[in-house]
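User: Fold both of these, please.

Assistant: Here is the first one.
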Amino acid sequence: MTMTICPPEADRDLSMYARAAKMIKGAKRCVAFTGAGISVESGIPPFRGENGLWNKYDPKSFDIQYFRQNPRQSWEIIREIFYEVFGQVQPNFAHYTLAQMEIKKLIKAVITQNVDNLHTLAGSKTVHEFHGSLKRLVCLGCRHKYKVSKIDLDTLPPACPDCGNILKPDVIFFGEAIPEPARTHSFGEASRADCFILIGTTGTVAPANTIPGAAKSNGACIIEINPFPSEYTRSVTDVFLQDKASVAMEKLVEEINR
């Protein structure tokens, strides 16, 4: 594939936001790729970094082998983090804006590394949850899946209503493979998109961090929204919008609507 110069030389005098808006409006297939940073403003702390959850909780609780051997201990931490800390959060302006952009056919899909379900709550229809979703539980025995709202989490570990085996959140634990069809759909978007909007992702979590690079290799223009430079900024990013997600999305929408 012939590589596209993004943005073209004629756009060099435009502001970064004007360049990004022009790229989005001119794209045939634009896709959003989101990470933990888009949900921070909803009250969800990141896992890594200065205030990350791994500084407070031992990550081994989210290792699949440890979970199988110590399901009650793991579930106590899981319930506290995912269903008490995360339980009451709501989408923020950035989530709602992406949903509106899908309605207006400015983007075709959202690929998210997040497990918080906030894109769906905001109204996005085509969401590829690369790491799964906390809103579902899966049985380690029969593999049946259930809405978490239908399962009593007062007794730990929760048991499968069908076979009695242990339930776990339908998210990827350390030691597990990326679920299908989310993996295939996500890399499929990277092969077809001509514009990728990266929002709130540092580029440090594999294999999700290879998706933007795959899109770039296939000719996509890369717009990055982050408050600080990431692993992508100097490697694949064409336009860097250095702001928090909600601030950047508000400015971007203003430019798109001009």
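And the second sequence with its predicted structure:
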Amino acid sequence: MDDTLQSRLSVADKAHCWHPFTPVADWEASDPLIIQSGHGVYLFDIAGNRYFDGTSSLWCSALGHRHPRLDAALIDQIGQMGHSTFLGMTHPKAIQLAQRLAEITADGLDRVFYSDNGATAVEIALKMAFQYHVQKPSPEPQRTRFLGLTGAYHGDTLGDVSVGGVNHFHSLFKPLLFETLRAPAPHCYRCPLGLSRPQCALACLKEATDLIDQHAETLAAVVVEPIVQGASGMITQPEGWLKGLADHCRNRNVLLILDEVAVGFGRTGTMFACEQEAVSPDFICLAKGLTGGYLPMAATVTTNEIYNAFRGDPSNPKTFYHGHTFTGNPLGSAVALAVLDAFEHDHILENVNRQAQRISERFDRDLIGRRFIGEIRQRGLMIGVDLVQDRATQMEFPAHLKPSAIMCRIARSKGLLIRPLGHNVTFLPPLISTDQEINDMLGIFIESYLEMENTIAAELVP
């Protein structure tokens, strides 16, 4: 590869591109990684260097890169049509996809509204929930409020930011946001109530249900990520928390919106995370793995009861006035159908659970108990390694040390791409990873931790 080309691209990027969630000064001082291609679990940069895609390209390339089923579906569809509007007309692939999503999601979820990404999927659910209460047979227009969790992340539209709870990302926009009720996240390692399992008796659930009781008459919906809060640091929920929350919402006639953008499509070991506690929500929001990272597409799946509240007549149409140019895009729909075919025929979930067990055993053997390992949180192939300066007190590192970023830089130099998330290091390998590929990724991950540990230990010496 021509070094001059790489240099020109780097200069042009820094002159014209604006990267998400990336401090400008850090990027301008960096040596950009320019990815040229991908195949299977690997990405290749413009210089031909190979890397394991240890984050599944921000959690969405669940079936890896250049998957034969997905490639074939895309090529076949592009030979027919790239795009046709879904406003006032339809097309076969979107119809077939909606039917299959209705078949595989929780009982009662029969209506599919397409959009472009996870943030829009959640935003749509928020708007639908509010409008449903206004238009249902016994209207309750006073239900205008939402309840979310501390540390929640649901996307970056203003509605999503309002129900989100990551101050580091969103505090600047507070004057633009609507007020949201906030329940403590069920974070057992850093319990916001200062309790511990199992003696706590799920006190965090009671905090949430008490809030629901106090505001039941004005609550439109509760919004949570089921089983794992992803961007909060891979926070895993204790058994029974989700089921208890769902049951209480149902008892108080409060809608439940489950954001499965990150945890859906096999990532936690079941097709959808809510299956693990047999929860049927009023809305499930899907994206990322829906198209295996090939195309931006999302779906908000809801019930016929909610859909029927939008039936009207010419004098009062009750229409949901929300849409996207690429709603139900044929290319995305075709690839999403191929993703579902892969899950149906290629034993994806069996592989996820087998590899998850291998990772757990290796981490138990080689990382648990190390000096800076606070907690390793895992559900399926969704893993967060919580780094702390002092294991006994859970004291975090000073901001300037950035051990998670250091570890990820070391891993990149060894051929593994992983990402820091605050004081956590995240590891979300493709669901198709083989035994050998998982072993190789784990080897680099552990080597990178040990090298980081030595580097940081030296920094901490008085």
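Residues 115 and 327 are 5 Å apart (CA to CA).
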